[in-house]
Design brief:
Rossmann fold; 9-stranded mixed β-sheet; 25 helices; 29 strands; binds GDP-alpha-D-glucose
Length: 737
């Protein structure tokens, strides 16, 4: 396993649907050429800098050993072979007819076909097998995009220690849309096999985290999720470009001669540029409609402006794309038919993949770039256009629905469905002063130059290694036999001991209702045995109210702390004492809000204690519980802003209590009086952190669950707590063991 080390010297295995190189056979000869597309273009510039290897579909179902070895030796690519049926069902089917529209917020055209889903699973397994075949133990595996969302977890089964990153290039839809997918949980669990999961924007990562919470019940802390005994991280990495490549393109003689050639065709007219892959998410018909509105409203521009419309062929075998192509052809024909004169056509239209020098020439020439996708993960065209403007001229009109709009705020931002707004933006852009153009563009360029593709890659790997390191740290904190035997020896060696034990989630598992978590005889007996040696002080420190604690534990010779540190009853005093005089009238104001949520969320209920009040939603059957909890949390935080009340989001419960009251403070009462030589504290909840935090270095503080904590050690699960306590007793030679 790669242990928190740097990238250099490690192979990086990139897995993506397509290899960056395709092979084509013509007249018995094989021709290799680079693939066009966001990911291939973006990574090609850094591909050669590291020890990068690529695993992906080769474009065919097989080819000769000779070609395969050329792929490996010359291009560092391991081809994956897929059959015609695989491509039809997995790629054209599940990827393009299900995931692509759904993830781009087009649920109405999304198809759900279980046989296509079966192929999606199959192909992900094919990729997995190929990677398992070629991966070295120290390789870093970087999986890209929606075609391979099951791959992280599949790989994790075969390579449990592997370092795996996953990046999604398209949007992740809001929970309300994602939940429509019949295989939603499988997809989430598939992605969660990665150590680091990256998205272009906060919106997408929040959508993903919402879905993980609502569908799998897993919450996050600063993007960190606890998944199957591993901490993993969700982060935001807006994809950058190879800035210098575009910024210096104007110096290339081939680009310059292309500019001259195009100028001859277009003349002195202003150029509005539109370049996209042929896709309904890119909003091409809507853009043409808006251009029509612009011509309608602005006769002064007739004959003076040309829309250079380049549509790159894509998914040519998919019916919807063929229909879209037809629609665009017709719209262009209609607009040109309506406005053309003998020496001017408003739209110059090409449907082909342009060579780089033509693309760069168009970027440099264009007075305006009209980039108005209906929904787009990022959109690199917008960034490339700005980067190519070495003289600072040109105006970008950008859809607010593109991820790139988060970074390119100096562009004219528009709603892609608002024809009038786009028409006005065109007017504004065509008349913008050069001074303002330069001001806007240089600001954006500064950002793009800094946050380029290299930094993007580096930041992704830095965070990947960071989370790996955290996993190692937590692994090292896991109580193993060595730590356990030291704990037992220390317990045995010292003759003044204090043991703090949380109750729910620590001594007993969570149940549907707090009332059902009654301690059984075995647990009571264990506590009694622990409390028996006179040198032991056992403190049960919990969020429970004092009457419940009395009912369950009054016969035991132990101290009790209730309501997270509000009430203390020491074994000597035998009466409850409040930690400080507290107010409780605020509960009257808060209760109606909680009652509203009890009405709204079936299965939730209120638990009221003397100085705290809690809303439980453990029994809520629908996924909505977590969303409602989030909403309630936000509401309560704002309601309680001006009163001395803290709002805590615990395990399936939201609890309000007086500020400054916590388990740590209550524990101090015991520690300051007794000065024990041996301290043990075990708890599973965020409320236990205040206790862990104040304990001395040599104390045994144990967090139940593999999560970051102030505790020195971790136990994997609640079921290990009672056995650990029993082991302590066994060594002391307790007579009733
Ligand atoms: C996905 C997401 C996200 C395009 N036409 C030609 C050509 N291109 C190059 C461009 C650019 C890339 O292809 C297209 O980038 P987009 O960002 O528009 O991306 P998608 O292909 O839709 O890809 C997208 C991207 O992944 C990256 O994460 O931004 O949101 O959908 O680099 O320059 N290049 C050449 N000729 C063309 O005709 N040479």
């Amino acid at each position: 396993m790669l242990k928190g080390k740097k990238l250099i010297g490690h192979r990086i295995l990139i897995a993506s649907n397509r290899l960056p190189i395709s092979v084509e056979r013509r007249k018995g000869k094989a021709y290799f050429h680079p693939s066009v597309g966001g990911l291939a273009t973006a990574l090609s510039s850094v591909h050669n800098q590291y020890q990068w290897w690529w695993v992906g579909w080769s474009g065919t179902k097989s080819f000769s050993k000779k070609i395969e070895s050329k792929f490996v030796s010359e291009f560092r690519c391991y081809p994956v072979f897929l059959t015609k049926k695989d491509i039809e069902k997995y790629y054209q089917g599940f990827c393009n007819r299900t995931l692509w529209p759904l993830f781009h917020y087009f649920p109405r055209i999304t198809k759900y076909d279980s046989s296509e889903w079966d192929y999606y699973k199959k192909v992900n397994q094919v990729f997995c097998n190929r990677i398992v075949d070629v991966a070295n133990p120290d390789d870093v595996i970087w999986i890209h995009d929606y075609h391979l969302m099951l791959l992280p977890s599949l790989l994790r089964k075969y390579l449990p220690e592997a370092t795996i990153g996953f990046f999604l290039h398209i949007p992740f839809p809001p929970f309300g849309i994602f939940r429509l997918l019949p295989w939603r949980k499988e997809i989430l669990n598939g992605i969660l096999g990665a150590d680091l999961i990256g998205f272009h924007t906060f919106e997408y990562s929040n959508n993903f985290l919402d879905s993980v919470l609502c569908l799998l019940g897993k919450d996050h802390e600063l993007g960190r999720i606890h998944n199957e005994n591993r901490i993993i991280k969700v982060g935001v990495f807006p994809l950058g470009i190879d800035f210098q490549r575009y910024f210096t393109a104007g110096k290339d003689p081939q680009v310059n001669s292309e500019i001259r050639r195009l100028r001859n065709i277009i003349g002195k007219r202003k150029v509005v540029l539109s370049i996209d892959r042929l896709d309904y998410t890119k909003g091409i018909p809507e853009r043409l409609d808006a251009f029509n509105t612009f011509l309608e409203n602005n006769p002064k521009w007739h004959g003076n402006v040309t829309l250079a419309l380049a549509v790159t062929p894509s998914r040519v075998n998919v019916h919807e794309y063929q229909l879209l192509k037809k629609e665009i052809d017709e719209l262009v024909g209609r607009i040109n038919g309506k406005y053309s004169t003998i020496d001017w056509s408003p739209i110059l239209y090409v449907h082909q993949t342009l060579p780089f020098h033509t693309l760069a020439a168009l970027y440099i020439m264009a007075d305006v770039a009209l980039v108005t996708p209906i929904r787009d993960g990022m959109n690199l065209i917008a960034k490339e256009y700005i980067a190519a403007s070495s003289n600072g001229l040109g105006v970008l009109i950008l859809s607010e629905m593109a991820g790139a709009a988060r970074e390119l705020g100096e562009a004219i931002i528009v709603n892609p469905n608002n024809k009038q707004e786009i028409s006005d933006a065109l007017n504004l852009a065509l008349e913008m002063s050069t001074k303002e153009q330069i001001l806007r563009n240089t600001t954006m360029q500064k950002r793009l130059r800094f946050y380029d593709i290299e930094l993007w890659t580096r930041q992704f790997f830095d965070q990947l290694f960071e989370i790996k390191k955290l996993q190692e740290t937590l692994e090292a904190k896991l109580i193993d036999d060595r730590i356990k035997s030291k704990l037992i020896t220390d317990y045995h060696k010292n003759n003044s001991r204090i043991i703090f034990l949380d109750y729910d989630g620590t001594l007993v598992p969570f149940t549907e209702s707090p009332r059902k978590s009654t301690p059984d005889d075995k647990l009571l007996e264990l506590l009694e045995q622990l409390a028996e040696p006179p040198e032991n002080e056992i403190v049960l420190i919990t969020g429970r109210d004092r009457s419940t604690l009395d009912k369950w534990f009054r016969k035991l010779n132990i101290s009790l702390v209730g309501e997270h540190g509000t009430w203390i009853k020491t074994k000597k005093s035998n009466s409850w004492e409040i930690i400080e005089p507290l107010q409780s009238d605020w509960k009257r104001e808060i209760r109606p809000t909680l009652e509203l949520y009890v009405d709204r969320v079936p299965g939730s209920f209120i638990e009221e204690k003397e100085f705290s009040i809690a809303w439980h939603y453990r029994n809520v059957k629908t996924e909505g519980g977590e969303l409602q909890a989030k909403e309630l949390m936000a509401l309560l935080t704002s309601i309680s802003a001006n009163i001395e009340i803290g709002v805590l989001h615990g395990n399936k419960v939201i609890e309000l209590k007086n500020v400054g009251i916590n388990k740590g403070r209550a524990a101090l009462r015991f520690l300051s009086k007794q000065n024990p030589q041996f301290i043990l504290a075990i708890g599973d909840d965020s409320t236990d952190e205040s206790l862990f935090q104040l304990l001395p270095q040599n104390a045994y503080s144990i967090k139940v669950g593999i999560e970051s904590s102030y505790a020195r050690f971790n136990l994997t699960s609640q079921s290990e707590v009672v056995p650990l306590l029993k082991e302590l007793l066994n060594v002391t030679g307790d007579k009733r063991r």
